[in-house]
Request: fold
Amino acid sequence: MAVKSGDCYIDVWREADFRGEKRRIQGPAEYPTLGFSEGDWGDDIGSLRVGPNAFVTAFRGREFHDEHVTFGPNDEVADLSQFEFDNDIESLKVIDSLKIFDRVGYNSAPDTPAPESPETDAAPEGGQPPPPNPNKGRRRPGAKRRTARPRTARSA
Reply:
């Protein structure tokens, strides 16, 4: 696999509390197994730190199967046992967070249209607008109603 550069990566340690052998796994990339030339890291990650431009989805099984957990930019987990994922990660997807924003037109100049999405360009089936959401405005049982707080002037 080609070596990537930048801030899209995940650092992993074999033991909890960022101890033991460390490896940086570069992204954006998908790793269906965690066997590297320096050794096999499958089922042997105790703690992790995600780079500032990465989202990471960690899977319990090889080839992105079984349960998974997702971590965002700059997330640190000193002990993966809190997610019941200590020494249980077999595959990873490392996604460049900046590419996610590019896709939705984030940071586009005001007079530059966002990239068109094929999902939204097509007319709805039958040419009719979608039906209204039956749950719109409903609260979950036991959920508290949010009320706006009055704004206060900040002193300089």
